[in-house]
Design goal:
The complex is a heterodimer of chains A (459) and B (251). Chain A is an alpha/beta fold. Among the domains of chain A are: 39-285, Rossmann fold, CATH 3.40.50; 389-458, no CATH class. In chain A, 52% of the residues lie in helices and 10% in strands. In chain A, the strands form two sheets. Chain A has a six-stranded parallel beta sheet with strand order 1-10-7-4-2-3, sandwiched between helices. Chain A has a four-stranded mixed beta sheet with strand order 8-5-6-9. In chain A, strand 5 and strand 6 form a beta hairpin. In chain A, helix 15 (329-339) runs parallel beside helix 18. The mean pLDDT of chain A is 93. By secondary structure, chain B is of the alpha/beta class. Chain B folds into two domains: 3-118, 3-Layer(aba) Sandwich (Rossmann fold); 131-246, Rossmann fold. Chain B is built from 13 helices and eight strands. Chain B has helices at 14-19, 21-33, 49-53, 61-71, 82-91, 99-107, 111-118, 138-143, 159-165, 188-191, 193-209, 220-232, 242-246, and strands at residues 7-10, 37-39, 76-79, 108-110, 131-135, 171-172, 214-217, 238-241. In chain B, helix 11 packs across helix 12. Chain B is globular. Classes of the chains: A alpha/beta (459), B alpha/beta (251). Chains A and B meet through helix 1, helix 2, helix 17, helix 18 and helix 19 of A and helix 1, helix 2, helix 3, helix 4 and helix 8 of B. Bound molecules: iron/sulfur cluster. Iron/sulfur cluster (SF4) binds at residues 256, 302-308, 331, 360-363, 365, 367 of chain A. The site of iron/sulfur cluster (SF4) has 15 residues of chain A, from helix 14.
């Protein structure tokens, strides 16, 4: 066993921890249900959001140009990056131009996707993630295990120990209020020292050139207000057409993500502060190619709320790291194959196709249908391991022919009945790892019907 | 159309045919009791889902065609499986959409859905004095919309509950997680055995701690998986397909 299944097996070997992780995430899903349920027009909102994004994806080129023009008029410097390398270099150039040394960053999955931290650190620049969860995993040198709750895989005792080591908090104290206060003192210093603040972007309003950043800790604001230079990084799909569209998304985002009515801070950045400089870096990194895949472009609507992760029964029982990609969970499993169809094919099978993800998604990404489609494409491109394609061909022949089907069914039932248990429950029979096979009946339904069903003879 | 004039083709999914013939018998008997003209075409095999969900839908086309050949003559196709019915309706779109294909896709129904929507029945006048936990199989729930799933904000309803509620003596237990996936997922159960079993165990636990004697569902595939866990762990719970309950001792 390889890939997701193997890592999931490892994750599940600590049963207690697995149960704890499932519960923690399920609690977020439940909060989301309550919050969504309090909005009577919830389903219409989802539909509206999905339509707005549909329009954006169909007219993205125009909206991007409109956005750029408006931003420039606001006195913002707009940069474009085609891929991760160009993005990192652009950021580095801005940093060098300002002779900056210290950077604070508020959470951005895009910088994660482009490996910005690592890149800048190699250039000798200090980058501090200022979102509490992000800072925790940065201390541990780990990637996020969830896109909204990056340290959800850690228990508070582990955070207590980590802070004791890194921030010299009292040993054994893992009281969340105490730890948060310690983090705040630590981060305050970083904010005050920073030369440049980097943020991600939740929404970019085309008509006004504004970028909107949603946080709960206010760390994006702290960074931006304190540092003389601010850089906002966005993927090209973050566009929304008008300011009045924003309300549709803010009503959906926080409720879907954490069950809050709205994020504590919804910050609008439109122009540089007096004496300051403001940059917006717009990144493609494979997105326009993705946009061209008509069967899959729906996934570009994603607003990164994380709801599909919290609801996913597989994610909750295998953990974020089992996916081995920057964005884990259901949405990650349909994004990863856009660029790495062969290497990430296992992710499209890390789902029971239960469809819960598609139902919670605030912008109606048809996640489980996408998974199904990816499976077909992977199979058609012959990217399966040989043994798998071969056995599927045989199954295809058997199920397509009545005679072969009847014969194989009978043979299988005979074998299950007559073979010794240790042969049936062998290592390769993964069904048998934790389950019994069904008891074998005397005859199949078809055989029964032949005897008892008064089948009228027909040709 | 009078009930006796409706021609019904009975589709019995492959795993029910091979391992749970009693579910096929219960479905047939129930439909016959209701005065319907039911026939089981002998050359049927499978809906093709095991292949398609593994990514090999092209290899399943022969199986799809066999299904259409067997069932195109009927007014309705009825099956005790939400998952297979969903597959026919949703995924036979890759066949050329001839009149026959369209007819079969439109008229293939899951058993409960057929009883409620087509026959307008919700009281089968049965007695079933047991504590029952209803496992809402995903494809029936979210695909065929047999009920409102917990993610959606809408009026709640459930065709399955509607049929069972009326049974004399039945107690339908409440679950902590009313519609979480059991982890079967077809070949998912084989490719991801650990996650699949973990999901199944947690479902069983939910039913068990809430006092179910029997777990029922519209899909025997979920129940085969849950039963496999119940038997391995030697628990006292039983599984029964909903057709078996609906066909049980009439009042
Ligand atoms: S796919 Fe939908 S549910 Fe998942 S993170 Fe994106 S917006 Fe949220």
């Amino acid at each position: 066993m390889k890939g997701h299944a193997a890592k999931a097996r490892q994750f599940l070997s600590d049963n207690e921890r697995a149960d704890w992780q499932d519960k923690a995430l399920w609690a977020v899903r439940q909060k989301r249900d309550v919050a969504a349920g309090s909005v009577r027009e919830w389903e219409q909102l989802r539909e509206q959001a999905s339509q707005i994004k549909e329009n954006v994806l169909s007219n993205l080129d125009n909206y991007l140009l409109q956005f750029e023009q408006a931003a420039i008029q606001n006195g913002v410097q707009v940069c474009w990056a085609e891929d991760d390398r160009q993005f990192n270099e652009t950021i580095l150039r801005i940093i060098r131009d300002h002779q900056a040394q210290k950077i604070v960053k508020s959470k951005s999955m895009l910088t994660e996707e482009c490996g910005l931290n690592h890149f800048l650190e190699k250039e000798g620049i200090e980058v501090v993630d200022t979102d509490l969860g992000e800072r925790i995993i940065q201390f541990r040198n780990e990637p996020p295990s969830h896109i909204v709750l990056p340290a959800i895989h850690l228990k508070r005792e582990e955070v207590g120990e980590l802070f004791h080591e890194k921030l010299h908090t009292e040993k054994g104290n893992s009281d969340p209020t105490y730890l948060t206060a310690a983090a705040r003192v630590h981060l305050r210093e970083k904010f005050l020292e920073a030369d440049i603040a980097i943020t991600g972007v939740n929404f970019a309003v085309a008509e006004s050139g504004t970028v909107v950043v949603c946080t709960n800790e206010g760390n994006a604001d702290m960074g931006v207000h304190a540092a003389p230079v601010q850089i906002h990084c966005m993927g090209i799909e973050k566009i929304i057409p008008r300011t009045e569209d924003l309300g549709v998304f803010t009503r959906l985002l926080a409720r879907s993500a954490t069950g809050q009515a709205v994020t504590t801070y919804t910050s609008h950045y439109r122009k540089p502060k007096p004496g300051g400089q403001m940059y917006i870096v717009i990144v493609d990194n494979g997105r326009s190619e993705h946009l061209g895949l008509s069967a899959h472009r729906n996934s570009l609507k994603c607003i990164r709320c994380g709801a599909c992760m919290n609801t996913c029964p597989v994610y909750r029982r295998s953990g974020g790291y089992s996916y081995g990609s920057v964005i884990p969970g259901p949405i990650g499993s349909i994004l990863a194959p856009v660029k790495q169809m062969k290497d990430k094919q296992d992710l499209t099978f890390a789902s029971s196709l239960c469809g819960s993800c598609s139902n919670v998604c605030p912008v109606k990404v048809d996640i489980h249908s996408q998974l199904y489609k990816w499976r077909q494409e992977i199979s058609e491109k012959n990217l399966f391991p040989k043994a798998k394609s071969y056995s599927l061909s045989i199954v295809g022949k058997v199920l397509g022919s009545n005679g072969m089907y009847n014969f194989s069914g009978k043979a299988a039932r005979w074998a299950l009945k007559n073979m010794p248990r240790r042969l049936i429950y062998n290592k390769l029979n993964t069904w048998g790892w934790g389950r019994e096979l069904p008891e074998v009946p005397e005859m199949s339904f078809k055989e029964w019907y032949k005897k008892n069903g008064n089948e009228r003879k027909r040709q | 159309m009078a009930r006796k004039n409706i021609q019904i083709g009975l589709f019995i999914p492959c795993y029910i045919d091979q391992f749970y013939p009693q579910v096929g018998v219960a479905t047939l008997e129930l439909l016959q009791k209701l005065g319907l003209d039911v026939r089981y075409p002998m050359k049927q095999t499978c809906c093709g889902q095991p292949l398609a969900n593994s990514g090999a839908e092209k290899k399943a086309i022969k199986t799809y065609q066999n299904f259409i050949r067997n069932f195109s003559e009927f007014d309705y196709v009825v099956s005790p499986s939400g998952s297979c019915v969903y597959h026919v309706r949703e995924h036979y779109n890759i066949l050329e959409q001839t009149e026959e294909v369209k007819k079969v896709r439109q008229n293939t129904y899951e058993l409960c859905e057929f009883l409620v929507d087509i026959l307008g029945i919700d009281d089968l006048k049965i007695r079933f004095p047991h504590k029952v936990g209803i496992h809402q199989s995903c494809h029936g729930l979210r695909g065929l919309k047999l009920g409102k799933s917990s993610e959606l904000v809408a009026e709640s309803y459930s065709k399955v509950h509607r049929l069972l509620e009326k049974a004399d003596g039945i107690e339908i237990i409440r679950l902590d997680r009313e519609d979480e996936c059991c982890g079967f997922g077809g070949t998912f159960s084989i490719f991801e055995p650990d996650v699949s079993v973990k999901m199944g165990k947690m479902r069983v636990h939910d039913h068990e701690t809430n006092g179910a004697e029997i777990i029922t569902a519209t899909d025997m595939s979920c129940l085969m998986h849950l039963e496999g866990i119940i038997r391995r762990e030697k628990k006292a719970l039983k599984v029964m397909h909903i057709a078996e309950i609906l066909n049980s001792n009439s009042l």
